[in-house]
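Section 5.1 Outputs to date
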Amino acid sequence: MPGHTVGSLIESVHEQFAAAPLSYGHGTDNAWDEAVMLVLQVSGAEDQREALQQPVADAAVQDIFDLARRRVTERCPLAYLLGQCRYMGYDFHIRPGVVVPRSPIGYLLGQGLGPWLPAQVRSILDLCSGSGCLGIVAAHRFAGADVTLVELDPLAVDVARRNISRHGLDTRVRVLQADVTGDWPWHAGLAGQVFDLVLCNPPYVDAADMAVLPPEYRAEPRHGLGAGADGLEVLRSLLQQAPGYLQRAGLFVGEAGNSTPALLQAFPRLPFIWPELEAGGEGVFVLEGGALSSHTAGSS
């Protein structure tokens, strides 16, 4: 393997990925970008054109080829093989058993929520927080806000805590373990607390879609994706309870993906706002606190 450069390795890995029946969507959406991610991550090279001619040490070359082989043969997300991923410009620790960060809500935090945001965002709640990525991105975006993450799975809670420390946010971000489908504010010690901004990327894949997921998605925890026959097992409960934990002047930002038609049927009176997702994705909605409080009582 002598003489390998960053550029030659990217080309070689890309050829392997392009020839294999891989599925993407865990930080990249094509074989080339995933090859670039793998080579840059392992080699430590900068994401710059000048780095393409940079030689790569033999040990790193071997690691790159080994990981590329595993990506093809095991069909698991590259983030699991690397132990980390990059989301919204930030690095996050990740591991098997925890859903890989990819929600388009992160892009809205950076550029698209302005028209609906409260005048001041001092408190943020991230429900079904997984690795903690959305809450942590929000903490960077709103530097004066305190952020509470709520997650049921103990493995994800541990990963979230590691990410909070990794980002130096221990004084402003905390993670609580609780089941958000029950009377969770009381069990989580949040009874009576209300928040300016609520973020929620819950499990929302319905039973029909769960049955045909490609291997890369089946490698993720089933409980982090599946949400019953219609995909609303979690989201239905959260919306019904939302007036109890969201300021009337606050904002609820949620994601329903392919289960959006079921969501609209279940809550026909809720005044959903559907922001344009310039970076791709679907099924992300916004609900203003006052409107949500006024309409929830009459929804199913």
